[in-house]
Design a protein that fits this description.
The chain is 74% helix and 0% strand. It is built from four helices and no strands.
Length: 192
Amino acid sequence: MRQKHWCGMTAKIGTVLSGVFTIIATDLYLIFEQKQLRSSNCTEINQWNKTVTTLINQLLICWSPNIILFLSCITIIISCLLIYSVYAQICRGLVVYIIWIFFYETVNVVVQVLTNNNTGIAEVRAMRWFGLVSRIFMHCFWIFFVTTYAHIIYKSKAKGNIIFYNRRFSAGNGEFPRRKSKIINFPRHYND
């Protein structure tokens, strides 16, 4: 069976490249965002004069470097799990990766919105948003390969289980149906 190609890649190669892209993009994100996230001023939190939503926003802003670092470490681990899942053909690892990427990017958008006002320079804000949006679009591109390969693995495992089940059932029966020959007429050649 010939494998389909999208953008010159099979689903398996695209899935492996998705994991590699996520590892590299997460490392670059941590390097670039380290200074921007650490620049938030958390010393002036006055709990008595603020509403609940303002306190929650301040808490998220103050803890955003730790949140991003923790989520990025988990993302790198899950990306390594994705690469292993491709090697071992484990469908669950691919599904975990898909769910995690949606969660990870959602949290990054929330942190970006909350910490956007802390950056004084407009060019830096624009660059941060460009980096986030381009990474989200690239994840959407790679998720197509991951879902396609997960579907291929799921279908092949389902077929394998059905074939194995039928084979075991017929072997336990002890009776095998006689196969008919596809050759119906035997032409006779006589030398006269």
